């Protein structure tokens, strides 16, 4: 609805002289006014005080939310250290930018093995569907958001994403609390299937 | 075949009386859940999901026959509840490993579990330990098996090997309390699942590795061991095509996907089929690896052009599309090449002679006719090996229609004996095929329509003989007390009868002729199948005429099995020559300059799974096939373009196929490639048969010549057809000499020995193997491995040669 009583009000502006000399005077005045030094003064004061709020990136990094979706990680099983991924292909199927590809084969132990697993991070939009759909919590979003590298293909291979075995042995693999992880009350909500064992 | 009207869910439908309700519903696009039923096999009633209400009564639609005015309701709340309980029973202890299961995404149990909304499990029993078994191409995981028995059914009713059976699972019986807690049908299914698993028949297992059991398995219990864990079902793209290995021309799907992460080029992961309507042999399912990866090399192409300019003959095999055959024909017209293709040449002549007496340019039978026939007479071919689909059809009608099978060949086939309860084997000597046909004519054709030459000839075999039969008579005698009593007494009496020496010659009883006649007159749809022994026979002309005569003067439909994939097509498209010239270009055949799809010739050509085009199949249908894999090299059309036969693409020739031979002017892209829901083959189009006046120009048999010494028969092991199947590593049948166990023992050989065959001036050494299905003294020599060998030994002539077999 247009208010019929509303009127345009002219803002009162300073008279703006466009004569060459007046313009020159205006520039000089703006350039040599003390405000520049006020700003420099603040910077200097903070510098000598050593009480800065600025994060010293990359030396220092802010903690991020567990739900933050950065470069993916492939986790290992807590007990055995085997890869959690069973090669079901659901992440590949659900991926909306079609950037996940995996090759699987029949292992000598008669189980399904993953020969190769890649994510094309040039195409990934970090939507988190892969982590959400994964039935084994094998693929999760890690906290690593620094993606600069010499090649686009970096970070995208299985060996880049899988928890290194030495890290795993130190117990440094962290369980993922973010997207797709079971909720804290998951146990209560599960309906058990009767099994006669 | 009375047409009736029935109602399914209130929808008025026309149907054939006594057809199963499930089939009618499927034909009309009405969904009734069912797992265990296979369209062309007998109903097993294992899953009971297909229950419906017909006229208010609960029936199983897979074995309930439709009657006039039947009112069928496919679903009611009670039925829903029962079906849901059945699904819950199927899900008891079913491993929750969909993530790694090959079947996930195309699993019928997965689908129905979701469809019926099974989200809780009310029933339970302790699982037992079972062993995962390795059955060659198949891997059986009993934990996943739901005992629908489709594998057992297809192996028995369709394939004919009956290599699978149900065996006891060895678990404790179900708790009796369950009986009251579970709907009746669900309980009976649980009981059955709990008692049995699938096992292989241990003694004389005749499994031919066709893999049809893998195809029909609704869950992941029978997995294709070559495919297992390599891809998920949903990642594969299905390319519908026609199997290029034999003339059956089965509809198959090549399932393709990129090779791996590093290599984006497409690869065939597996071949699947619409198993309700199409049954594949091992070659169709596992013989897909023969692609030709090549790139264009201009130098090679120029040398090919030189060769073509120099050549006066093109020799080619029948593993070729109709379009390429037409290109060759056009090249002949333009540049005067001689076209040599011995099997198509023989077939062409044979078909011509056949038409003279039958009055139709094409034979009348088809594969579908065998499935629906009740009397089958085969002659002149090793049906199991030459065309496995014919064997499947023989078995199918033997099992389902209880058809009588008369199998005449030069040796007994132990598999054929088991196909029907009434199988009669007729064994003749090579070169005596005419006698069998004349006997058939004598038995079934009206005496009045048999030409005089023939009836005189037939009479010459008949002689009046006297035989002694025992006859029971009653005689009045006086007993000890002088009373007259009647006693039965057997006396010998001499009776005169007509003895037919043809029957002696064929090792048949004298009653055979009458029995055949009686059988024939009681059956409504007999079919006569002729194999490729006959086409290269030196009396082929008369044999063809005899077949045509039978077609014309009896109820018999006649089916001529084309020798290889597109023999029929080539014989209808090309003017073939008999004698080759001086410089021969061999296209997938021997020659001075060779074009080869296997990559072993002078210029590479695309394999048949890399080509678009059409084949003419045994059913006289022109069916399209698609390219599953990319091809980077030159093809025949590129050469033809340079030689002045111009068409932008090969498939543009589809429209130009000769209408005078029965082809239809149709664009390749408009040809359908599917079966309808009712199971009707709706691929491409059927050739139009031209009819004309038939002559009765048949001749008496000439049986004067015989083969001396050991007899060698050209026959490949099952699932091997040519050098293309040979190059597929998944097919395991070996090349060599196959013989019966008795023969091996008689010659004191053992399986795997090297033997020398001396045939005329030629001599070859090969390994000898036992073929359990064979019987008698004839040995079979495989030629699929080498076209050269075939040419050298058999010289494109009769499939039997005389030889000397020696141990090396």
Per DSSP, the total helix count of chain A is 7
CATH topology of the largest domain in chain B: Ubiquitin-like (UB roll)
For the biggest sheet of chain A, the summary is: 2 strands, antiparallel
Strand order of the largest sheet of chain B: 29-33-30-32-31-34
String of helices and strands of chain A: HHEHEEHEHHH
- CATH topology type of the largest domain in chain A: Alpha-Beta Plaits
Please state the second-level CATH architecture of the largest domain in chain A: 2-Layer Sandwich
Which descriptors would you attach to this protein?
heterodimer; A: 197 residues; Alpha-Beta Plaits; 2 domains; two-stranded antiparallel ribbon; 11% strand; elongated; B: 808 residues; alpha/beta; N-terminal domain of TfIIb; 5 domains; six-stranded mixed β-barrel; globular
Describe the structure.
The complex is a heterodimer of chains A (197) and B (808). Chain A has 197 residues and is α+β, with helices and mostly antiparallel strands. Chain A folds into two domains: 20-49; 72-179, Alpha-Beta Plaits. Helices cover 25% and strands 11% of the residues of chain A. In chain A, strands 1-4 form a two-stranded antiparallel sheet. In chain A, a hairpin with a 5-residue loop joins strand 2 (100-106) and strand 3 (112-119). The mean pLDDT of chain A is 86. Chain B has 808 residues and is of the alpha/beta class. Chain B folds into five domains: 3-215, Ubiquitin-like (UB roll), CATH 3.10.20.740; 232-286, N-terminal domain of TfIIb (Single Sheet); 298-338 and 567-574 and 581-686; 348-461 and 507-560, 3-Layer(aba) Sandwich (Dimethylsulfoxide Reductase, domain 2); 710-807, Barwin-like endoglucanases (Beta Barrel). Helix content of chain B is 27%, strand content 23%. Chain B is built from 25 helices and 34 strands. In chain B, the strands form nine sheets. Chain B has a six-stranded mixed barrel. A five-stranded mixed sheet of chain B has the order 2-1-5-3-4, with no helix packed on it. Chain B has a five-stranded parallel sheet with strand order 15-14-23-24-25. In chain B, strand 6 (133-135) and strand 7 (138-140) form a beta hairpin. In chain B, helix 2 runs parallel beside helix 6 (184-195) and helix 4 packs across helix 14. The mean pLDDT of chain B is 92. Chains A and B meet through helix 3, strand 2 and strand 3 of A and loops of B.
């Amino acid at each position: 609805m247009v208010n019929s009583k509303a009127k345009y009000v002219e803002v009162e502006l300073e008279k703006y002289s466009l004569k060459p000399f007046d313009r020159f005077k205006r520039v000089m005045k703006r350039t040599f006014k003390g405000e520049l030094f006020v700003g420099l003064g603040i910077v200097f004061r903070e510098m000598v005080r050593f009480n800065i709020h600025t994060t010293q990136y990359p030396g220092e990094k802010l903690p991020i939310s567990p739900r933050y979706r950065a470069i993916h990680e492939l986790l290992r099983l807590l007990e055995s250290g085997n890869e959690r991924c069973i090669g079901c292909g659901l992440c590949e199927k659900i991926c909306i930018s079609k950037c996940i590809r995996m090759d699987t084969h029949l292992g000598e132990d008669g189980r399904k093995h993953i020969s190769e697993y890649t994510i094309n991070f040039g195409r990934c939009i970090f939507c988190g569907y892969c982590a959400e759909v994964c039935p084994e919590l094998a693929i999760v979003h890690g906290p690593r958001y620094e993606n600069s590298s010499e090649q686009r293909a970096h970070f995208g291979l299985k060996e880049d994403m899988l928890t290194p075995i030495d890290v795993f042995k130190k117990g440094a693999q962290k369980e993922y609390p973010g997207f797709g992880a079971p909720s804290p009350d998951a146990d209560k909500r599960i309906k058990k299937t009767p099994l006669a064992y | 075949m009375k047409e009736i009207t029935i109602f399914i869910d209130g929808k008025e439908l026309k149907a054939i009386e006594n057809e199963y309700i499930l089939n009618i519903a499927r034909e009309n696009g009405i969904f009734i859940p069912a797992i265990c039923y296979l369209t062309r096999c007998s109903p097993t009633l294992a899953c009971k999901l297909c229950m419906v209400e017909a006229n208010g009564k609960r029936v199983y639609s897979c074995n309930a026959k439709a009657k006039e005015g039947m009112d069928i309701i496919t679903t009611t709340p009670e039925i829903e509840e029962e079906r849901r309980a059945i699904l819950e029973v199927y899900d008891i202890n079913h491993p929750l490993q969909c993530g790694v299961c090959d079947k996930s995404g195309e699993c019928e149990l997965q689908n129905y579990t979701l469809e019926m909304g099974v989200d809780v499990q009310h029933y339970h029993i302790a699982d037992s330990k079972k062993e995962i078994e390795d059955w060659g191409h198949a891997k059986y995981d009993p934990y996943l098996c739901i005992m629908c028995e489709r594998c057992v059914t297809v192996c028995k009713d369709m394939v004919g090997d009956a290599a699978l059976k149900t065996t006891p699972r060895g678990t404790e019986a179900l708790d009796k309390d369950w009986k009251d807690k579970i709907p009746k049908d669900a309980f009976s299914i649980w009981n059955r699942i709990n008692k049995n698993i699938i096992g292989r028949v241990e003694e004389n297992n005749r499994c031919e590795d066709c893999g049809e059991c893998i195809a029909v398995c609704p869950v992941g219990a029978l997995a294709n061991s070559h495919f297992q864990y390599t891809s998920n079902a949903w990642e594969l793209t299905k390319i519908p095509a026609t199997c290029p290995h034999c003339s059956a021309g089965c509809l198959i799907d090549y399932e393709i996907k990129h090779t791996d992460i590093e290599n984006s080029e497409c690869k065939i992961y597996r071949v699947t089929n619409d198993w309700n309507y199409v049954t594949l042999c091992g070659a169709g399912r596992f013989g897909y690896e023969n692609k030709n990866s090549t790139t264009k090399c201009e130098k090679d192409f120029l040398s090919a052009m030189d060769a073509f300019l120099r050549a006066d003959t093109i020799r080619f095999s029948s593993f070729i599309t109709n379009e390429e055959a037409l290109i060759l024909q056009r090249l002949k017209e333009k540049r005067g090449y001689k076209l040599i293709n011995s099997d198509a040449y023989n077939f062409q002549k044979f078909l011509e002679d056949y038409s003279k007496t039958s009055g139709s340019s094409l034979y009348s039978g088809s594969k579908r006719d065998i499935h629906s026939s009740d009397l089958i007479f085969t002659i002149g071919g090793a049906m199991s090996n030459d065309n496995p689909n014919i064997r499947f059809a023989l078995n199918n009608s033997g099992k389902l229609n209880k058809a009588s099978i008369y199998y005449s060949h030069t040796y007994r086939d132990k598999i054929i004996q088991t196909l029907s309860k009434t199988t009669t084997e007729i064994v003749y000597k090579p070169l005596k095929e005419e006698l069998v046909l004349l006997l058939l004519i004598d038995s079934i054709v009206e005496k009045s329509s048999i030409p005089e030459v023939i009836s005189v000839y037939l009479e010459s075999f008949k002689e009046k003989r006297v035989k002694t039969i025992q006859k029971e008579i009653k005689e009045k005698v006086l007993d000890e007390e002088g009373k007259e009593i009647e006693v039965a007494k057997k006396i010998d009496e001499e009776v005169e009868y007509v003895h037919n020496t043809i029957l002696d010659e064929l090792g048949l009883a004298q009653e055979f002729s009458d029995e055949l006649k009686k059988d024939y007159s009681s059956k409504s749809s007999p079919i006569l199948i002729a194999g490729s022994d006959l086409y290269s026979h030196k009396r082929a002309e008369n044999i063809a005429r005899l077949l045509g005569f039978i077609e014309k003067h009896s109820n018999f439909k006649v089916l001529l099995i084309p020798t290889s994939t597109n023999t029929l097509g080539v014989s209808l498209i090309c003017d073939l020559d008999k004698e080759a010239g001086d410089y021969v270009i061999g296209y997938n055949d021997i020659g001075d300059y060779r074009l080869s799809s296997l990559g072993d010739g002078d210029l590479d050509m695309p394999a048949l799974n890399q080509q678009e085009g059409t084949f003419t199949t045994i059913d006289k249908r022109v069916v399209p096939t698609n390219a599953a894999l990319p091809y980077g090299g030159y093809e025949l059309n590129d050469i033809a373009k340079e030689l002045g036969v111009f068409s932008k693409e090969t498939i543009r020739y589809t429209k130009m196929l000769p209408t005078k031979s029965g082809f239809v002017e149709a664009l390749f892209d408009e040809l359908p490639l599917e079966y309808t829901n009712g199971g009707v083959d709706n691929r491409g189009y059927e050739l139009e048969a031209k009819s004309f006046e038939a002559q009765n120009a048949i001749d008496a048999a000439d049986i004067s010549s015989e083969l001396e010494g050991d007899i060698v028969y050209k026959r490949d092991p099952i699932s091997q057809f040519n050098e293309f199947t040979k190059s597929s590593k998944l097919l395991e049948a070996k090349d060599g000499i196959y013989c019966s166990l008795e023969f091996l023992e008689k010659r004191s050989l053992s399986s795997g020995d090297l033997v020398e065959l001396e045939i005329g001036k030629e001599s070859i050494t090969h390994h000898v193997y036992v073929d359990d299905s064979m019987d008698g003294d004839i040995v079979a020599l495989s030629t699929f491995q080498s076209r050269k060998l075939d040419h050298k030994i058999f010289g494109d002539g009769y499939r039997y040669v005389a030889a000397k077999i020696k141990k090396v």
